[in-house]
Amino acid sequence: MPSLLWLLFQLSAGIARLSPNMVVGQYTNREVSPAVAEIAARDFREAFQQDARAAVHESQLFAESSAMSLPDVPVIIRHGTHDENAPSAPARALATRGNTDFQQLTADHLGTFLDTRSEVLKSVAASL
Question: What Gene3D superfamilies does the record tag this protein with (predicted)?
Fold first, then answer.
């Protein structure tokens, strides 16, 4: 399975170079500005900059949330009920450990970020 996932990630990274809107389409059904589409594509490509194996490893770690260590700082977790990219169970499991603020929103993967980015950034800034 990791080899198949690696191949899928390699293909996806190539597609991201060709069409930022295809990347956005993996994460949301919303219309987004060209600037947001380019940022999402750039972030996606960056995840594979070294090698797709890193993304496979990260996915495996997140799937087994008990293997992840949380920092000794407040953790903000936002998850969309319509997120088809990341299951909510690992996020919920992380939320039971440490100092976490977990909220589930009626949104998809990218929509959750777009809807909460100001709130999350304000919260981070307040904790500095």
Answer: alpha/beta hydrolase
